[in-house]
């Protein structure tokens, strides 16, 4: 076995700083980052006064900005009327619907944001109110990033450079949104802090099981952490804005997409790595997640 072969056969180790410790006076090390970001269904739309969109929910945040006319939205039992410049942030799995109002057409720009960064997830889910009027500091701070994304979305070019600009714009949008909404988050009590610790433990455990292709077993995990399944579901939903099974499904979908991007893996092998007994079962589930078969997803995103 050659040295090169022997090295390549070694298991991949976490990144460490092997050199430079001796005689170092100070080391300021940034926290490691591993964030998956999805921008799904980003679009600008102009609609007639008769336009409606039925009640639905999705696994991503939805940030909508009205650019013309008036749009009605129903969210969490409350009705909002958005005019030009107004924005609304819909949390994951919140049922909502929309319709055009008034005598003139309406237009809006919409971004569906999927992100697996736990702090961002639970912070955005704790907003006291999801509606940001045009004159509010939040809407004014976020608007330039939304307008930049709108220009990117409507650009005919689909080069790698433009794709990277879109990614950069999405992260900039999240950073501005986080800064702008920081004052709109309720202070956390000791009970809320305990709930966050439990929810983070459960989320981490579910992610580890998905990565290992194992059954999730939410009830068993709750018991492992010393709470009942029903109470664990309640705590997790309070922190993350969704049930544990929805979070697990989201993690599983994200890993499925990542594995499908590797053409060296057959679809049958992807199904096995995700813990599906039958490839057909995986294909049906993936189509429920994405609206397309695993093969169509691979064709669109790898072989295009």
- Reported by name, the CATH topology of the largest domain is Jelly Rolls
Tally of individual helices: 11
Structural class estimated from helices and strands: alpha+beta
Distance between the termini: 38 Å
**Strand tally, please?**
9
Shape by Cα distribution: globular
Taken in chain order, the helices and strands follow as HEEEEEEEEHEHHHHHHHHH
Q: What would you say the CATH architecture of the largest domain is?
A: Sandwich
What is the radius of gyration computed over CA atoms, rounded to a whole number of angstroms? 22 Å
Number of domain modules:
2
Helix content range: 40-55%
Oligomeric state of this protein: single chain
Strand order of the largest sheet: 1-8-3-6-9
- Which segments are poorly predicted (pLDDT under 50) over 5 or more consecutive residues? 1-15
- What does the largest sheet look like? 5 strands, antiparallel
User: What is the average per-residue confidence, as pLDDT, rounded to a whole number?
Assistant: 84
Q: Superfamily at the CATH H level of the largest domain?
A: Regulatory protein AraC
What is the beta-strand fraction?
15-25%
Supply the CATH class of the largest domain.
Mainly Beta
